[in-house]
Each structure stands twice: as C-alpha cells, then as structure tokens.
Amino acid sequence: xxxxxxxxxxxxxxxxxxxxxxxxxxxxxxxxxxxxxxxxxxxxxxxxxxxxxxxxxxxxxxxxxxxxxxxxxxxxxxxxxxxxxxxxxxxxxxxxxxxxxxxxxxxxxxxxxxxxxxxxxxxxxxxxxxxxxxxxxxxxxxxxxxxxxxxxxxxxxxxxxxxxxxxxxxxxxxxxxxxxxxxxxxxxxxxxxxxxxxxxxxxxxxxxxxxxxxxxxxxx
Length: 220
Fold this sequence. Notes:
Strand order of the largest sheet: 1-4-11-12-13
Number of domains: 1
Mean pLDDT: 93
Distance between the termini: 30 Å
Low-confidence stretches: none
Strand content: 25-35%
Shape: globular
Helix content: 25-40%
Number of strands: 13
Number of helices: 6
Radius of gyration: 19 Å
C-alpha cells in the first residue's frame, strides 16, 4: 500500500539521511482524545482507561501515515505550513491499520481494561484506532511499533524505526512553500535519493487540493 508521511523540512532531511522515522507515543500525540475515544463519564472507567493508556505509552508507539497527499490541511498541520516535505512509502498492508472516525464516544465497561483477556485486547485496540469524525480528512493509517523491539533506535529519549522495518521510501515531495529546490535537496541528500522519485507540490488551479508541479523550471 502507498502511504504518506508529512514532516517539517529539517526532520525530513534528517530522517532520509539516517533512513528512519520518529515513533509517536500515545501521550505525545496532538489529540487529547487518543485512546480516550470511549465514554468515560463513570470515574471508574476513566481511571481504568487512564491507566491502560499510560501502560500503552510505555510499551508501544505509532507510525502515522495518510492514504493521500493532496489535502492542503495536512500540509499546513504537519509539513510546517507547506514549507516541509511529504514522504511516500510502499508498505505491506499487514503492517497498517486504518483509523476509524466516529461522531460518538465508544461504550466500554470495566472488564474491557483487563488486558489479559482476549476480548479486552480487541476492545482496547478499537479504542486505539478510533478518533473523532472531524479528523477524517487525514485518512489516517497507523502501524504499531513495539518500543522494546531490538530494531527500534533509542536516542535522546526518543524512538525511531528504521526504513528497513517501515517499508520502501519511494517518493519525496517538497511542499509548495519549501525553501529549497530540486538541485539543493538533491545535493543535501546525495545518494539517499537514489531510485526515489522527487517532485514538488503546488495548489491546483480548479480545486482545493495540492497537485504535482509539472514544470521543472519552476522549482530548479
């Protein structure tokens, strides 16, 4: 499956050069409802889910992707206001799970937090992959990363997954306002770009979406 990962320019360059992606952890994500997609009006449920989320924060992380790169809001939120980069990956379908979007909170009971039970694990996984419906523009796909896996790179309190575990980097797309051009990014990344498609995005003329800039002279 082809999926896309948006980044500010600095982190995109570093990620390509080091051939890795930063792993996002639950309590650090930009949505305070992460794993809190359930109705937790009952304080016992709230305490149980808070504990489960803290346990998950220590054990697993996510690699977050989109099924599409054309939404300008994605570029604004995750690629530094169109000054960043979108990386395209070809990944095995089995590694990815779609996020489901809901207008209403999920219904859970205390037994759903007994993580030793198979049914509870299913319910908690559902909570992990459910977000408020207003996030649906992201068309998000997620890969779960075990933070204790031997291939995970630990550096300065952060976790990174090498491209060899993620999939094949197949494209590098510069944002419409990216301050570097084709020649400069090619020079910066050197051999890291071998066999990878390089292009630039621009606003479409007839719709509210981003498209590829076809005139190479406009982003030399």
